[in-house]
Amino acid sequence: MIGWIIAACFAALLIICMIRAALAPIVRAASLDVSAEDVSRSEAYAAELTQMLDIETVSSKQNADKAKFYALHTQMAALFPNLHRICEKYDFDGSLLFVWRGTNPSAQPVLLMNHMDVVEADANAWATPPFSGVIKDGRLYGRGVLDDKGPLYAMLRASEELMAAGYTPPCDVYFASSCTEETGGAGAPDTAAFLAARGIQFRFILDEGSLIADTPIKGIKGAFAMVGVTEKAQGDVKFTAHSKGGHASTPGKNTPLVRLGRFMADVDKHCPFRKDYPPFLLQIIRVIGRSLPFPVRILTENIWLFRPFLPLLTERIPALAAMTRTTAAFTTAKGSNGFNVLPQEAYVTANIRYAPHEPCEVANEQLRRRAARFDVEMTVINEGFPIPVTDYTQEAFCLVSKAIRESCGNIVTMPYLVTAATDSRYYTALSNQILRFVPLRVNASQLASVHGQNENLDVKALAGAVDFYKKLIENL
Questions:
Q1: Which of 15, 225, 256, 419 is least surrounded by CB atoms within 10 angstroms?
Q2: Reduced to 3 states, what is the DSSP secondary structure of residue 120?
Q3: What is the helix (H) or strand (E) element at residue 41, kind and residue range?
Q4: What are the start and end residues of each CATH 3.40.630.10 domain in the chain?
């Protein structure tokens, strides 16, 4: 009798789970359809954006000359005259800060950010000149069109149009754009220090980061606006192995390179970092699960019951697996200087991306202990610092989600973990709500072109991007 009761309860529970999965909204890809008016606007925007793409603004730690950035400043002043006339402007060695005063001086301000520098591009590998905005077959090509001059243009164009219409926001709106984001230079830290010295606390901060992507993760179909609620902190560490050296004709056992190889293989096979599923990651799994087959939706819609089985899903999707834990990528190595010489010292370096739930020092200690097993020493080159997580149920995420709906149509919004670094990491003391999002819709190949070859954007996506910033400011 008890067995029948248990079986009946299990069957009832399974039926409830199936009903929850069946009732969940199914995510499907939405086409990028825009009105004729928006197409015309987008084409005009693209023509203006090319003028910013034409100016090569590759940032460099070796070259302190900011002439190319000041050339871009001159071009931006011509494109956005109202912005430059109405706003207060501050210059931090080529990095810019604008302040648009609102109607209520006592209201808490907001900060919108996008950077103006770009990474290098090999012209021989591109189908179009990388530092000359080219419109071809409905797409705009050029280094920085996605990262990050396109979003910078949309942000400033939106404010320019609102100002031209006589609009004044209810609170102060700050616009920050550094010229050193790609190299981790002084632009953002100097700007943040200036604001901190003035005692400014922001209602929320929105920086660049994730985009609106079709199939953002392999196997996940649909259009998703991925709003970064945090980012992985990053650091660099060095692992060194020593020996007495010697001639390669009489090698001993466990030479430095062998020990380093065994250590790297061990880390690759047995991840030393703690896996976790914070609330925002569970929400990501719920949302993307709605584009997966029905049996998988049973799991993702009922995480409260099937949580122990989540690794079966996340480990099959590398992008999700990387969100559950800290990662270590071995990047450089050096042994001896001769083919027939055993090294007295050999080393490898690793780039560490620290998960929000694991303090940097804890992850480093895990690596240090693992290295010691192979008689390998570890040295921290660049130590990461923790990045807070913004609650996706708070006001900032809701305002951004609303602006996405009003400007981009039937797009599913979800929280996201940005695995790359943004300038916003320097502003964590200035707001407890920091988001990372770019209102540009891209497909998988366009997403892959960021920092890669033939970086490009559909021209008709620009109107929605401008409208996003307008709606966000108007909804303040």
A1: 15
A2: coil
A3: helix 36-53
A4: 36-231+387-474
Give the tokens for residue 146. 């996605």
What are residue 311's phi and psi, to 5 degrees? Answer: -55, -30
Token pair belonging to 10: 């299990």
State the span(s) of the chain assigned CATH 3.30.70.360. 233-382
From 274, 279, 80, 233, select the one nearest 160 (Cα to Cα): 80
Query: Which is nearest to 160 in space by CA: 470, 471, 404?
Result: 470
**Tens of pLDDT along 218-246?**
767 778 999 999 999 999 999 999 999 88
pLDDT at 14: 60
Residue 32 main-chain phi, psi, to 5 deg: -90, 70
Task: Determine the CATH number of domain 233-382.
Answer: 3.30.70.360
Q: What is the dihedral of CA 352, 353, 358, 361, to 10 degrees?
A: 30
Count the neighbouring beta carbons within 10 Å of the beta carbon of residue 124. Answer: 6
Closest alpha carbon to 405 in 250, 150, 225, 160: 225
* Cα separation of the two ends of the chain: 61
User: Which of 112, 269, 211, 266 is closest to 455 using CA atoms?
Assistant: 211
Instruction: Select 36-231+387-474's CATH number: 3.40.630.10, 3.40.30.10, 3.40.50.970, 3.40.50.150.
Output: 3.40.630.10
Cα distance between residue 391 and residue 280, in whole Å: 8
Structure tokens at 89: 């402007």
pLDDT tens for residues 304-317?
888 888 888 888 88
What span, in angstroms and rounded, lies between the C-alpha atoms of 170 and 414?
A: 27
- Residue 327, Ramachandran bin (φ over 0: left; ψ between -120 and 50: alpha; else beta): beta
Give the separation between CA 443 and CA 216, rounded to whole angstroms: 8
Which residue ranges in the chain fall short of pLDDT 50?
A: none
- Amino acid at site 57: T
Q: What pLDDT sits at residue 100?
A: 98
| DSSP one-letter string for 206-249 | EEEEEEEEES-STT--SEEEEEEEEE-EEEEEEEEEE---EETT
**DSSP codes joined into one string, 438-471:** EEEEE-HHHHHTTTSSS-EEEGGGHHHHHHHHHH
d(CA 224, CA 213): 5
Identity of residue 465: A
Query: How far apart (Å, rounded) are the C-alpha atoms in residues 225 and 440?
Result: 9
